[in-house]
Amino acid sequence: MDTLEAVLTWSIPLSTLTVVGVGVYEMRRQKRRNKHGTPVTATYINEFTAMFYGTKRVELDHRDSTSLLREEDAQGAPPGSDPAQGVIYVRRPPTD
């Protein structure tokens, strides 16, 4: 077995063990410091999966684009009303 063959043979198992080790470290660190956010291992696994599945890339792009959108609370009052003053006008539909 030459060097290149050995590197290619052990690359997937070693990278898997590295991801698991980093994931355990991040989980312990998050528990101690109460940090929130996306761990590096989750990002790595998402990108690794996106290499092989095109739908995962679409999902990640959609998630990124929706996170940039501004969330607006819907106005529940009918038009012409002023809920700040406690006045709400409700119009009756025309009867035939």
**Approximately how much helix is present in the residues?**
55-70%
Name the structural class. mainly alpha
| Count, helices | 3
Oligomeric state: single chain
Beta-strand portion reads under 5%
What string, H for helix and E for strand, traces the elements in order? HHH
Q: Quick check: average pLDDT? A: 79
Cα distance, first to last residue?
91 Å
Task: Identify low-pLDDT runs.
Answer: none
**Main sheet characteristics:** none
What is the total tally of β strands?
Answer: 0
Question: Nearest-angstrom radius of gyration?
Answer: 26 Å
Shape label: elongated
Give a verbal description of the structure.
- By secondary structure, the protein is an all-alpha fold.
- It has a domain of 63 residues.
- It is 61% helix and 0% strand.
- Helix 1 packs across helix 2 and helix 2 crosses helix 3.
- The protein starts with a helix and ends in a 28-residue tail after the last helix.
- The relative contact order is 0.06.
Topology at a glance:
Elements: H1 3-33, H2 40-52, H3 54-68
Helix pairs in contact: 1-2, 2-3
In brief, what are we looking at here?
This protein is 61% helix and 0% strand. The chain is mainly α and 96 residues long.
